[in-house]
Amino acid sequence: MIVLGVESSCDETGLALYDTERGLLAHALHSQIAMHQEYGGVVPELASRDHIRRAIPLLKETLKQAEVSSADIDAIAFTQGPGLAGALLVGASVACGLGLAWDKPVLGVHHLEGHLLSPLLASEPPEFPFIALLVSGGHTQLMRVDGVGRYELLGETLDDAAGEAFDKSAKLLGLGYPGGPAISRLAEFGDPGVYKLPRPMLHSKNFDFSFSGLKTAVLTVVKQQTTNICEQDKANIARAFVDAIVEVLVAKCMNALKHSGLKRLVIAGGVGANKQLREALNAAAAKRRYRVFYPELEFCTDNGAMIAFAGAMRLQQNHEAAQKNYAFGVRPRWPLDELRPD
């Protein structure tokens, strides 16, 4: 079974073809980072318009890479939510338009389920059950995963997501957009312990997160500088910020594993590509004989491959999950724990 995946939830347009027998056949991705940089963040209207321009050329590229035609495709999966409403509508309309034109069934996929299952695309995928940390610009959640659609929310951020805290703190340091990778790179040149930043909810007796206060603490440190901040000071602040957020994420993950009795941890979402987070998680897991699984780096951020794969997994469980019903809708807000196995 070959599934075409369409991703357009935010500022990446991704298309991919996944075959349940041969694996990932092809994928193509366009990032809008360069377009949004001058605005310091994603402009929803511009994002939607760019998805319209990119979708069909990327579709042609994907079909050419895979050396398949529309006749070979069995179903089309698209990101139905959560995400930016206008951006989601573009992907939904493209998928349903193709479904109507090609007489193929379509299936709406949860964006976070795509991220959650993306490590299963790796050469050594994890087995169910496992604990998953979904960590991105819009979400920070700990889940217990017992199978496709079998998700139990253990904890989530009460305010800012980890990726959002990365971006906002980077902006305070004048690092531009996207801030997450920039502050992570700068932190490598910082000296540990120069600045002390809080570890919000580190010792709480639950699995929830809070990063708004950490961002405010960065702002306070920046304002305390009486002169222009030199590059070394910026690096030291970046190091303090990264150390704080990584310590909280690692501690919560280890606590969740201990509480559940499970030995496997999956990291998904854009922040999962963070070098410092990966190093700290690997070290902490090794001490406790846990295993940590990550998506391939190219699949940490939004992409069509994870949507095609999630759609294929859904269809393997229920062949009627995709329908020839092209009156599409999107869900900009859609809690992951509302999903069911079929």
TrEMBL record:
Required for the formation of a threonylcarbamoyl group on adenosine at position 37 (t(6)A37) in tRNAs that read codons beginning with adenine. Is involved in the transfer of the threonylcarbamoyl moiety of threonylcarbamoyl-AMP (TC-AMP) to the N6 group of A37, together with TsaE and TsaB. TsaD likely plays a direct catalytic role in this reaction. It is found in: Cytoplasm. Binds 1 Fe(2+) ion per subunit. GO terms for molecular function: tRNA N(6)-L-threonylcarbamoyladenine synthase activity. Its EC number is 2.3.1.234. InterPro entries: ATPase_NBD, Gcp-like_dom, KAE1/TsaD, Peptidase_M22_CS, TsaD. Belongs to the KAE1 / TsaD family. The gene is tsaD. Substrate binds at L134, V135, S136, G137, G138, D167, G180, N274. Fe cation binds at H111, H115, D302. The keyword Metal-binding applies. Its cofactor is Fe(2+). The keyword Acyltransferase applies. Keywords: Acyltransferase, Cytoplasm, Iron, Metal-binding, Transferase, tRNA processing. It holds the Pfam family TsaD. Residues 24-309 form the Gcp-like domain. It catalyses: L-threonylcarbamoyladenylate + adenosine(37) in tRNA = N(6)-L-threonylcarbamoyladenosine(37) in tRNA + AMP + H(+). This is tRNA N6-adenosine threonylcarbamoyltransferase.
